[in-house]
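Example 3.2
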Amino acid sequence: MQLRFKPAAQPLLSVVVPVYNERAVLPLLHARLTAVLSGLPLRYEIVLVDDGSRDGSDIDMADLAARVLHVRAVRLSRNFGKEAALTAGIAHAKGDAVVVLDADLQDPPELIPQMIEAWQAGADVVAMRRRTRAGETATKKLSAHLFYRLLNRVSAVDIPEDTGDFRLMSRKAVDALGQLPERNRYMKGLFAWIGLPTTVLLYDRAPRAAGHTKWDYLGLLRLAFEGITSFSVAPLRIAMVLGLLTALTGVLFGGWIIAKTLVLGEVVQGYPSLIAIMTLLGGVQLVSVGLLGEYVGKTYFEAKQRPLYLVRDIVERRQTSRSVGVRMVEERGHAA
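Structure, written as tokens:
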């Protein structure tokens, strides 16, 4: 594969890596990224975003950024979540193209040249679809498979199936993403929402290189619910249909009781049927109110207009015509 750019017009590639308690994998991440990027005929930068790590990852990141010219460490003031950290990294990326990569190296950096080739061919977004998922349990694979298909069924946006955050975006796509101001962010959906020309490449996902996953099933369930409620009102419609079916069932059951009493002369069995109906209606009402509350809650947080994240500082090594120095910038905050 030959990537060719004119020497005077070499583009800048930014690689954005959100980091949360990944100290064990950081040296290997930098080594593999540098080995790939240094062999490409373009300029590059690595933007590491610390999302409030507690294992010393932020210290190692700052030290690496102070020593290595192509690395910038963006340290958030606390843990804001992966979606916010990813937004922060993209906002601080300066490249003509931006690659999003997880720190655990399950998404191989060695695929970046293929992504750049697709970008050169005219794609504004190069999405990487997982063909296989090594190192993951059968339960997680099945749940992910079903979730992506469910999300596509209920969403008006065509979100590529089996595709995570690993992708390349042109500067045009990054600028378009920057125009989306919502605080409740499901990045996979936002990537698809901008709707620019997209190329999908297949790859085999590797096991985690070091450390352990920060996601449990409860966290994944919350993320899945966030994705569905951020891009669809289908849950509200399902609750409405469920309410109509429950009301219809009540009418039919009431008619059946009247018929038995008048025609067959049977005594109405009040207590058990009453409790069953009350329990059913109560459950339907609580589910409906809960779904409505989820959407109202999203509106509540959007109305507050709080910043999506706050940046503690930015550490980078800058080279001038006369010297090389370390630059540390403190920022008050940033609203996505």
